[in-house]
Amino acid sequence: MATAFRILGEIEALVDGQPLDVGHARQRCVLACLLVDVNRPVPAHELIERIWADAPPYKARNALAAYISRLRHLLGAAGAARIVRGPNGYALDTDPRSVDLCEFRDLVSRARCAANADTATGLFDEALGLWRATPLATLATPWADEVRRSLETDRMRALLDRNDAALAAGRHAELLGDLAMMLRSQPLDERVAGQLMLAQFRSGRQADALDTYRTMRGRLVDELGVDPSPALQSVYHQILDGDPARPAPSPHPHAGIPKRATRLIGRQQDIAHVSAALAEGPVVTLTGVGGVGKTRLAFETADRALADRAGGAWVCEFSPLGDGAAVGQAVAHALAVQRSRGQEFDDAVLDYLRPLGLLLVLDNCEHVLADAARLVERIARECPHVTVLATSREPLGVEGERVLPVQPLSEDHAAELFTERARASRPDFDPEREPVGAVAEICRRLDGVPLAIELAAARMRAMSSLDVARRLDRLRLLSGGSRGAHPRQQSVTATIDWSYRLLSPAEQQLFARLSVFAGGFDLEAVREVCVDEATGEDDVLDLVTGLVDKSMVTVRSGAGATRYSVLHTLRSYGRQRLEEDGSAEDVAARHARHYVELIERAAAGMRGPDEAAWVERITPRAGTTYAAPDFDNLRSAYEFAMARHDMDLVLRLVTSLPDVHLRIGYHSIDWVERAVTTADPDHPLYPAAVGTIARAAWVLGEFSHACELAGLAGGRAPRAGASYIAHPSDVVADAALYEGDARSALTYYRRLLANPHDVADPLRLALIVDRITFCHRRLGTSEDDLIRLVEDAVGAADDTANPSARSLARCSLGRAVAEADPDRAMRVLREAAELATSVENNWLIGMARMEMAVIRATRGDLADAARSFVDVLDHWERGGPGIIAQQWDTLGHVVALLRRSGDAGSAAALRRVMTTRGRQALLQSAEMDEITDAGRVELSDAEVVDFARTALRQYSGSD
């Protein structure tokens, strides 16, 4: 007999296609509860809560038993399924493929892993076809309402993924009507807007696609006070650049929320309470003892809040920080926020957050409490659309804070957690075959604290539950030394101590040494930092695997690599053990040496064909907690070396960072500044360090200061292998170029072409050629061999297979041929932008887009040019590392465009501002002729950009 259960519509049970009468509404609700968690036990108390919510009848358990009995008889008689009862509750035992919800999830999962777009589209269609109506139709309980909302979210995500697959399969025409209808029903959904834009563009309706973007942008600004997300802007750029062939990523709300492979148990009501608190106040703090589950609860709540936050949810973890001084810097890194020279990180974060609507999760605040509270208080006061969700062992103590203590699990949920984790360690674990009450006793003695329960459950591989319970009797002796601690914290500490004592000596030593890692780590790092040279690779893997099996280490896999981490509570314990055995200093030194060597390899790797892989590993990116898994370890290595005054180690580290700065701006430039003020000027790496801080001043538009800093090198050039952007003399030449002396800059860079040391590096050659073409445009000149010179640089760059070198050389080629062959220039500049995007080189992305905007303006495509310049200005403002210098260069071209457009007033006003700010050298010669002295204009950099953006929009058609 064929059995089928349906909940994606009316609740139905069918045998051979014939429906069974499953009874009235409450009995159908019992069946639905078991189907949603098919083959998993649902505790009786949870079933009662799902069915009757806050108003259960007298003797609710008896009523529930009656419903279960009727269903068991009905389903058993029909041969449809079995309802079984175990210590953790009732479960419907059946083939999950017979439940339409399970079939839907399986088809969606297969579609997302499909090898081609047509197959994926077909699987998505099959999955979506299972939906007959509103899920759990006719059930009206709070639980059913919550399940419906969750399932509708799953359906919408599948539908949007289906749209992506259909677009990739070239089925854009058939999507137009459905997408337009979806956007009307969800007018603020940026992902739907992005899909409609692509479908319109690929159907030959570029104007409609651009109009869809302008309309969406207007809605977001008017209703939410935010700009379109970077993902939607990326779709807009693709359309603006006329590139319909390459599918652009669909915009999702950004979130750096780590995913866990295990399900969250017993926290559904807590999630609802936290969500409600987030809707009511600017700051919510989850408090509780270590190991109670604050972080997991915060992440799960944030994940569910994504749909309600236009700006997404962003995570910053404070556990890697050594002290509170780095709080602002850590949040800036998490959000990819730029700061001006001399600006405090806290101020930069606040400037960035003020106009946005997002959820900011700050995890593990307790050890940086004062500094975290100071920043959160300012966010709550100055950023009206930002909500902070913090986790801490104690409240932050800020105005408007809602404190929600996270309680241990109930007895039933604690037993459910223990059973599930025990089965992960020992698949044949059956609580019914264990001594009566043993599992409940374990959970009671561990006070229902999840971390302690998971550690104990990990022991079930080698012990019975009775053995574990007996050993827990001794824990009271172990916690006697922590009289000032919370009783439950004593239980956690004692459980960790017990778990530690059960490790082999080799595992104990490794666990303690793993506490040196400030962030995640891989096996290579473990071998280099934590074990003796005689220990083989397989032995290291066995030791780490043993710690994973015992829940002392967590596995985090992603981007094709397996990485590990240690929970904050466990790491704190391990650090104490490391201090006690006297090896902390030696392990920290090995850690610092390893990560300095790693960043040196990364710096070399970023100049080769594997640039993308090294960027993925080293460069921190906004909101993605584990996207730059080694950056926290680099910070720790730097602080260790500075504290020991090991300046050789410090300089090796900071002179390997310039390629990182191109992606994230100069967040960590204070590392270099401290190094330069402390190091011996005769050190061979000193000129490269000086060149790095001088370049930082240059990109911030502080040209005089940049030259002063460059002078610290005493005319010495960095040694071979230094970053191509860390040469002090280059900074002096670039300052001259931007201050009006293009001829001396041209002479300098022409001279470098004769130096074999400089032209041997294809990236450095590409930079030199880029500056030569830039100088010629400033001077309005050319030279006979310029095109050949640039094409040779392109060839040399292509030979390296390095995306940044290839992009930079193509920027030069596009600039060099723009006047004679603008179509060729646009083609190579699009290639430059794509190559730069593939390795997240924000400087080159902005440069390529700016050059394309200049060509559009020169050809008379005023509306497209205006839109392009607005886009470029937005790019620099979002944090391109040339946030000031490149911004002013762009504004010089904007003046020329405004003049061509007939807006003499705006052009003249912007000319006057640039003149009074000392930026007149960036104006074209025609604009220089018209400058008049109209008095000093006092505007900030941001106000100048806003003025230009407003003037451009009247020609771009933007709202």
Q: What would CATH call the architecture of the largest domain?
A: Orthogonal Bundle
- How many E strands? 12
**Envelope shape:** globular
Radius of gyration: 31 Å
Q: How much strand? A: 5-15%
Fraction of helical residues: 55-70%
Per the CATH scheme, the topology name of the largest domain is Arc Repressor Mutant, subunit A
Distance between the termini: 63 Å
Number of domains: 8
Q: Which class best fits the helix and strand makeup?
A: alpha/beta
Biggest sheet overview: 5 strands, parallel
Give me the number of helical elements. Answer: 46
CATH superfamily of the largest domain: Winged helix-like DNA-binding domain superfamily/Winged helix DNA-binding domain
- Mean pLDDT rating: 82
What strand line-up does the widest sheet have? 7-8-9-6-10
The CATH C-level name of the largest domain is Mainly Alpha
The poorly predicted ranges are 244-255, 475-486, 622-627, 924-937
Oligomer: single chain
Keywords:
Putative ATPase, alpha/beta, three-stranded antiparallel β-sheet, Rossmann fold, DNA binding, Arc Repressor Mutant, subunit A, 959 residues, globular
Q: What layout of secondary structure does this protein have?
A:
Layout: E1 3-6, E2 12-15, E3 18-19, H1 25-36, H2 44-52, H3 60-77, E4 82-86, E5 89-93, H4 100-112, H5 117-128, H6 142-168, H7 172-185, H8 190-202, H9 206-224, H10 230-240, H11 268-280, E6 283-287, H12 294-305, E7 313-317, H13 327-335, H14 345-353, E8 358-363, H15 369-382, E9 386-392, E10 401-405, H16 411-425, H17 438-445, H18 450-457, H19 465-472, H20 475-478, H21 487-501, H22 505-514, H23 523-529, H24 537-549, E11 554-558, E12 561-565, H25 568-580, H26 584-605, H27 611-618, H28 631-643, H29 647-654, H30 658-664, H31 669-678, H32 686-699, H33 703-710, H34 728-738, H35 742-752, H36 756-759, H37 762-779, H38 786-800, H39 803-817, H40 822-838, H41 842-858, H42 862-878, H43 885-900, H44 904-916, H45 925-928, H46 941-956
Parallel strand pairs: 6-9, 6-10, 7-8, 8-9
Antiparallel strand pairs: 1-2, 2-3, 4-5, 11-12
Helix pairs in contact: 1-3, 4-5, 5-6, 6-8, 7-8, 8-9, 8-10, 9-10, 11-12, 13-14, 16-17, 16-18, 17-19, 18-21, 22-24, 22-25, 26-27, 26-28, 26-29, 28-29, 29-31, 31-32, 32-33, 32-34, 33-34, 34-35, 35-37, 37-38, 37-39, 38-39, 39-40, 39-41, 40-41, 41-42, 41-43, 42-43, 42-46, 43-44, 43-46
